[in-house]
Every structure is written in C-alpha cells, then in structure tokens.
Design brief:
The chain has about 140 residues and is mainly alpha-helical. It contains 6 helices and no strands. Helix 1 packs antiparallel against helix 2 and helix 3 runs antiparallel to helix 4.
C-alpha cells in the first residue's frame, strides 16, 4: 500500500510538472512572437497573427498576452484610421492592465489614445491622455 502511494505521488509530481513547463513554454512563445512582430514593425501586416495570439492567450488565461495583443490591435486600428475600433481595444486592454497593475501597458494604451485625439484635433483630451501615459511610464 505504501509503495502504491509513493508511486502515485511520483507520477503525479512529474505529470503536473510537465504540464506547468509546457504551459510556461507556451506563454514564452506567445511573448516572443509579439516581440518579433514589434521588432519587425509589421503590426499592420500581422493583424491576423496578433488576433490568433490574443485568442490563444485568452484560451490559456494568460492575461499578459491578452493585454499585449489588445494593445497591438489598438495600434493597428489606429494606423488603419479605425479610431472607434482602436478605442474598443484600448478600453478592454485598460481594464485588464489596471487589474494587473501593468503600468507599462497602461502607458502605451494612453499614448495611443492621445495620438487618436491629436489626429481628431481634440487637444484637451490629447493632453490629458498623454499626461496619463507619462504618469504611468
């Protein structure tokens, strides 16, 4: 009986340890892919890939990946002139980033919002958003 118990513990430890390693590897791969998209400066070309990474992040409850995806999608929508869609992405990203106390992402979110307001010639809103971006930076 005692042997069975130890065997069970041994197998349980290795099975959960393997799952955790695979899970962490998946997170790392998602972040590396986001990094490569940004380094290559191909956010607009990679919008579908960003959406896939975002969906993958949601599927595994990887909030950092979700925030990163939403922020990149916000930037893509801004670059494409779709300010309403950019705002929707930023609203969702802001909620998640605040829950995680992710100040770097909040800074980026407000920076892109500020850019939208500058384009729309809303200087008061732009100044407020850009100041928030600085506050979080």
């Amino acid at each position: 009986m005692r042997r069975s118990f130890y065997l069970f513990l041994f197998l349980y430890f290795f099975s959960t340890n393997g799952y955790a390693q695979n899970f962490n590897h998946k997170k790392t791969e998602i972040l590396k892919t986001y990094d490569q998209i940004e380094i290559d400066d191909k956010e607009a070309v990679s919008a579908d890939e960003i959406k896939k990474l975002y969906d993958e992040s949601r599927k595994i409850s990887f909030v950092e990946g979700e925030i990163r995806g939403l922020t990149l999608l916000q930037k893509v929508a801004l670059m494409n002139g779709d300010y309403i869609l950019s705002g929707k992405y930023s609203d969702h990203a802001e909620v998640l980033a605040k829950e995680q106390d992710d100040y770097n992402s909040l800074s980026a979110i407000y920076l892109y919002r500020g850019k939208i307001h500058i384009i729309l010639d809303k200087s008061v809103e732009a100044k407020a958003d850009l100041q928030k971006a600085l506050d979080f930076a």
